[in-house]
């Protein structure tokens, strides 16, 4: 017993903090982005808004799969819920489009409860397939509602035309920036807390976590509901830039594929990985989207190459070669300077 106490006194668990250079750089970037509507054109504002929404989606999928071990392939269900919140609350009920964004998150939270009750009865690959099937159920239900005009969808231009185009683009961008900021910094704060430690413990071993007193169901439900709400809000913002909502577009598997691509390419289980992956996706899309089918083939091949060559993603490859540090969330064991 004495030996254990002495050994424990010699070492301590430390959590590295964000470096001052990263803090200053992040603040400067955020201020530059915040002022974007005042010095940039509508096309650029729309593109950056879409990027911020995709990054938010990727961060939420990374929280689910990378930190929570919940490999969901049906997150497009909540993107669709966010998109159709624009239709229900905007077109049918006349709510302001900007108030619909938080309402979409609340609706997704409510619908995520019965969805999760079904999905959490499954494990592993069955969970992944089950979430995709549940997303298809949502798509088919919406498609068969006569008020939603079937597969042709509905135009949401009437609820957007209430605002001057400059105000609409600016406020949509600022809300997307706020949502993305909350998704990144909120995830960082969560992972630095004891809840984040419990979350990663559940991902690594549910049995070991339970033996240490961690409530595995509570952790899983919390992460699932957070991801559902934020994903729906990002989905609502995305479709304000598209002017039309249809079941095939709103509940498209492409949304989840984009999340997986960004996270796997950048580095799953890191906060920096989705940022790098989302940036790379937009660079490839803007330069190679004219290739048609070959563009998707290239994305698939690139994903395979990165997974085989750099399993930890591009960010993991960078940290192995250079002493770079972004948003550290891991705990390290170091020698206690007070020990003799």
UniProtKB/TrEMBL annotation:
CDD domains attached here?
A: TM_PBP1_LivM_like (cd06581)
Give its localization: Cell membrane
Give the keywords, sorted: Cell membrane, Membrane, Transmembrane, Transmembrane helix
Q: Which residues cross the membrane?
A: 21-39, 45-71, 83-112, 124-142, 171-191, 221-243, 255-282, 294-311
Question: Where would you say this protein principally sits, based on its record?
Answer: membrane
What InterPro entries does the entry give? Answer: ABC_transp_permease (IPR001851), LivM-like (IPR043428)
Q: Which residues form the signal peptide?
A: none
What cellular-component terms does GO give this entry? plasma membrane
GO terms, molecular function: branched-chain amino acid transmembrane transporter activity
What kind of membrane protein is this, topologically? Multi-pass membrane protein
Domain of life here? Bacteria
Q: Does the keyword Cell membrane apply?
A: yes
Q: A Pfam family this protein belongs to?
A: BPD_transp_2
The protein here is known as ABC transporter permease protein
Organism the protein comes from: Hydrogenophilus thermoluteolus (Pseudomonas hydrogenothermophila)
């Amino acid at each position: 017993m004495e030996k254990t106490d002495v050994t424990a006194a010699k070492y301590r668990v430390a959590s590295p903090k964000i470096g001052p250079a990263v803090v200053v750089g992040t603040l400067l970037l955020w201020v530059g982005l915040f002022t974007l509507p005042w010095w940039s054109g509508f096309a650029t504002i729309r593109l950056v808004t879409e990027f911020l929404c995709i990054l938010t989606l990727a961060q939420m999928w990374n929280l689910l799969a990378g930190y929570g071990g919940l490999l969901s392939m049906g997150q497009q269900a909540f993107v669709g819920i966010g998109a159709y919140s624009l239709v229900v609350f905007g077109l049918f009920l006349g709510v302001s489009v900007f108030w619909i964004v938080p309402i979409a998150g609340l609706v997704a939270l409510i619908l995520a409860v019965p969805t999760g009750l079904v999905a959490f009865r499954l494990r592993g690959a069955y969970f992944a397939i089950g979430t995709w099937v549940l997303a298809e159920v949502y798509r088919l239900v919406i498609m068969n509602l006569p008020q939603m005009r079937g597969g042709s969808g509905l135009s949401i231009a009437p609820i957007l035309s209430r605002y001057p185009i400059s105000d609409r683009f600016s406020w949509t961008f600022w809300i997307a920036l706020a949502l993305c900021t909350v998704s990144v910094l909120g995830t960082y704060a969560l992972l630095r807390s004891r809840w984040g430690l419990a979350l990663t413990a559940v991902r690594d071993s549910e049995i070991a976590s339970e033996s240490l007193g961690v409530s595995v169901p509570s952790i899983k439900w919390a992460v699932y509901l957070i991801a559902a709400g934020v994903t729906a809000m990002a989905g609502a913002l995305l479709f304000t830039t598209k002017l039309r909502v249809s079941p095939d577009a709103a509940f498209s598997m492409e949304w989840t594929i984009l999340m997986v691509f960004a996270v796997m390419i950048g580095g799953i289980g890191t906060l920096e990985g989705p940022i790098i992956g989302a940036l790379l996706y937009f660079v490839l899309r803007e330069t190679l989207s004219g290739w048609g089918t070959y563009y998707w083939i290239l994305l698939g091949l690139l994903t395979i190459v990165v997974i085989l060559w750099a399993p930890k993603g591009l960010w993991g490859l960078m940290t192995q070669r250079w002493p770079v540090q972004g948003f550290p969330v891991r705990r390290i064991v170091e020698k206690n300077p007070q020990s003799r």
